[in-house]
RNA sequence: CGGGGUGUGGCGCAGUUGGCUAGCGCGCACGCUUCGGGAGCGUGAGGUCCCGGGUUCGAGUCCCGGCACCCCGACCA
């Protein structure tokens, strides 16, 4: 046979087919799988372990900023959903409905929550009477359902897991402060834990949450040059308090409507991690959230198995004592090369090889997933080094992602350049905007690029600057991109 | 919801103008030899050929109807 058959189960490169690379990476890394229900995935233990670490890191921050967790019902009576006009309009098209219970037709159909504003606000209305009842600072971890036409593992599934904060405040200022505070929590969380640099800013009216006064976002840039909305924080104003009757008697004995916020991030972020950090070998996980931070692979040799196992156990124990999440891959039916590949696909930050040479020399071989760098170190040093690598790798991944984003951020000088840049380079395009929805629409129609946000930093326009498309006077510099 | 494509062991596929007991690779199970970058040999298990109807002596293959999934567009975290 002169024909060399390609190895089966290879993941296509990001270059040749990014979307296929993504799906294959998710599946080969054993994060998730399809199920019998369209658009509903099963998050497998490895993927869920990742989500749990993300969740815990964010949950800690949510609590540190004074919020408590609670849980509200899955089902939302239609009448409640109808109470905020813009809100229904936005979500009705993607609602799934329960129409029967116990074998008989329900008098009123129940929506499976696409988000919980309606149900939570209806309950808050009973909880709020006095200004002394405020603020209410509650978060819930839950599943929600949106009937999507087209789904993709993690990025857009019919059912997904998320966190949604719902707060009620006495004043507009306080609500606005809360909205921005939580957006900053998201931005910092993405950067610190997930090593994803994100641009914080405000959404334009057309991208605003259904029923919100203002929507803020943290936008990340994926390796294919598309933007991903990684988290949103909404100032709901009094839209919902008026719709649901959340009123309180203020200090001045005047009845007033409360001011509200809501904010959320979802399992979509798992997709963000994959598309920000993955390479052609598969996943690369930021150490801080990786379910397995270091994997130990023994290189078996006849006669020394016992010694090898002992040494592996010793290293594992020392690492655990240092707080490193270690996995010992002691399987005897798989060869080392197979294991190397497998753990690389799964994105484990550090691999520790322990073989006959190491037994003789009192060393261990460390291999970094992010750089591929390989080093034999004396045992004690190796353990120290792994702990250091957790920090180094995390930092390196953030820096890599940051410089990628900077490289992919452009300032086209005119409309022709805008189109060319979007086609050839993609990424984020910083351009003056005239502030109209017409322009936004026109650009979207022509290029599929949307305004991702009006960034907090760098949105100032100089006198005389004009809109990249319409030529009219610009009101702000905004970021355009094609987005997931 | 429009346009295109595909449905055959767990996965990837082959299956001729309709013909014999439906094959191949990977994976899986067992055994032996191996193990510093996806191991080799041997033995073995595993199938409503998407579903329903029709044509025929005979259908994985042809015809009609349905369903599902994937890709490309419009809508969305």
How much of the sequence lies in strands comes to: 25-35%
Structural class assignment: alpha+beta
> How many DSSP E strands?
23
* Proportion of helical residues: 25-40%
User: How can the largest sheet be summarized?
Assistant: 11 strands, mixed
* N-end to C-end Cα span: 45 Å
What topology emerges from the helices and strands here?
Elements (H helix, E strand, L loop, with lengths): L17 H11 L3 E3 L6 E3 L1 H20 L3 E2 L5 E3 H4 L3 H7 L4 E6 L2 E9 L4 H11 L8 E10 L13 E11 L2 H23 L4 E4 L11 E8 L5 E11 L1 H6 L2 E3 L5 E3 L1 E8 L1 H10 L16 E5 L6 H17 L4 E3 L7 H10 L4 E5 L1 H6 L1 E6 L5 E5 H29 L1 E2 L4 H10 L3 E6 L3 H11 L2 E6 L20 E6 L3
Parallel strand pairs: 3-7, 15-16, 15-17, 20-21
Antiparallel strand pairs: 1-2, 4-6, 5-6, 7-8, 8-14, 9-10, 9-22, 10-11, 11-14, 12-13, 17-18, 18-19, 21-23, 22-23
Helix pairs in contact: 2-6
This protein binds one RNA strand of 77 nucleotides through strand 11, strand 14, helix 10 and helix 11.
Describe this structure in words.
- Helix 2 crosses helix 6.
- The chain is α+β, with helices and mostly antiparallel strands.
- The protein is built from 14 helices and 23 strands.
- It has 3 domains: 18-277, 2-Layer Sandwich (BirA Bifunctional Protein, domain 2); 294-390, Rossmann fold (3-Layer(aba) Sandwich); 409-481, C-terminal domain of ProRS (Translation Initiation Factor IF3), CATH 3.30.110.
- The chain has helices spanning 18-28, 45-64, 78-81, 85-91, 117-127, 172-194, 239-244, 268-277, 305-321, 336-345, 356-361, 379-407, 415-424, 437-447; strands at residues 32-34, 41-43, 68-69, 75-77, 96-101, 104-112, 136-145, 159-169, 199-202, 214-221, 227-237, 247-249, 255-257, 259-266, 294-298, 326-328, 350-354, 363-368, 374-378, 409-410, 428-433, 450-455, 476-481.
- Strand 12 and strand 13 (255-257) form a beta hairpin.
- The strands form 5 sheets. It has an 11-stranded mixed sheet, sandwiched between helices. A 5-stranded mixed sheet has the order 16-15-17-18-19, sandwiched between helices.
- The relative contact order is 0.11.
- The structure holds one RNA strand of 77 nucleotides.
């Amino acid at each position: 046979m002169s024909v060399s058959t390609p190895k089966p189960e290879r993941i296509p490169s990001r270059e040749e087919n990014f979307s296929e690379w993504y799906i294959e990476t998710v599946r080969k890394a054993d994060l998730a799988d399809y199920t019998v229900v369209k658009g509903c995935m099963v998050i497998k233990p490895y993927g869920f372990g990742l989500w749990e670490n993300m969740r815990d890191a964010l949950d800690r921050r949510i609590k540190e900023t004074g919020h408590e967790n609670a849980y509200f019902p899955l089902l939302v009576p239609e009448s409640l959903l109808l109470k905020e006009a813009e809100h229904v309009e936005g979500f009705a098209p993607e609602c799934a409905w329960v129409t029967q219970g116990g074998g008989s037709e329900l008098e009123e159909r129940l929506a499976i929550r696409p988000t919980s504003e309606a149900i939570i606000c209806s309950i808050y209305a009973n909880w709020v009477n006095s200004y002394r009842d405020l603020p209410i600072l509650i978060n819930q971890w839950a599943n929600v359902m949106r009937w999507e036409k087209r789904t993709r593992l993690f990025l857009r599934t019919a059912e997904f897991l998320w966190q949604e904060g719902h707060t009620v405040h006495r004043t507009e200022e306080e609500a606005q402060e809360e909205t921005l505070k939580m957006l900053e929590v998201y931005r910092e969380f993405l950067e610190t834990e997930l090593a994803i640099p994100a641009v914080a800013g405000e959404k334009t009216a057309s991208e605003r949450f259904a029923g919100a006064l203002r929507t803020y976002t943290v936008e990340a840039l994926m390796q294919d040059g598309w933007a991903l909305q990684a988290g949103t924080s909404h100032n709901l104003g009094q839209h919902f308090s008026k719709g649901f009757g959340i009123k309180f008697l203020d200090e001045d004995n005047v009845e007033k409507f409360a001011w509200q916020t809501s904010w959320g991030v979802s399992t979509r972020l798992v997709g963000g991690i994959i598309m920000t950090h993955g390479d052609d070998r598969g996943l690369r996980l930021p150490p801080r959230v990786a379910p397995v931070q270091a994997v130990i692979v023994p290189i078996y040799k006849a006669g020394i198995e016992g010694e090898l196992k002992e040494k592996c156990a010793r290293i594992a124990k020392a690492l655990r004592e240092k707080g490193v999440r270690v996995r010992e891959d002691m399987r005897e039916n798989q060869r080392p090369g197979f294991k190397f590949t497998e753990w690389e696909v799964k994105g484990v930050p550090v691999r520790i090889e322990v073989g006959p040479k190491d037994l003789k020399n009192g060393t261990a071989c460390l291999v970094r997933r992010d750089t591929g760098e390989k080093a034999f170190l004396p045992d004690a040093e190796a353990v120290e080094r792994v702990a250091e690598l957790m920090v180094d790798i995390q930092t390196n991944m953030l820096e890599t992602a940051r410089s990628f984003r900077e490289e992919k951020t452009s300032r086209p000088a005119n409309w022709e350049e805008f189109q060319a840049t979007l086609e050839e380079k993609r990424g984020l395009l910083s351009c003056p905007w005239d502030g109209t929805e017409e322009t936004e629409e026109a650009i979207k129609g022509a290029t599929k690029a949307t305004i991702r946000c009006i960034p907090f930093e760098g949105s100032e326009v100089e006198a005389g600057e004009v809109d990249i498309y319409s030529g009219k006077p610009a009101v702000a510099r905004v970021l355009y991109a094609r987005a997931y």
